[in-house]
Design goal:
By secondary structure, this protein is mostly helical. The chain has one domain. It has 3 helices and no strands. The protein is elongated and about 70 Å long.
Length: 79
């Protein structure tokens, strides 16, 4: 995969003045951002599972047979 990134001249000059390679800095920033996105995705999945287990423990669930029967009845699907 090829990514094209435009670094504003002013930012590039600041990075160079600070002894940093603008291209490498951009790649490091993109890598860190992707890691944050990955962590957020994992956290969402874990939170969903935590809530589901909490619902089961609190009795806020219905047997699948009841749910499917209600759906068949609502949508006129023969059982």
């Amino acid at each position: 995969m090829q990514v094209t990134l435009t670094i504003p001249d002013e930012l590039a000059a600041e990075l160079i003045a600070a002894g940093r390679d603008p291209s490498r800095t951009a790649i490091e920033a993109l890598t860190a951002y992707q890691r944050l996105l990955d962590l957020a995705s994992e956290a969402d999945e874990q939170e969903g599972l935590r809530q589901a287990l909490e619902d089961v423990a609190a009795g806020r669930t219905y047997p699948a047979e009841e749910v499917f029967a209600a759906m068949r009845s609502k949508h006129g699907i023969p059982g």
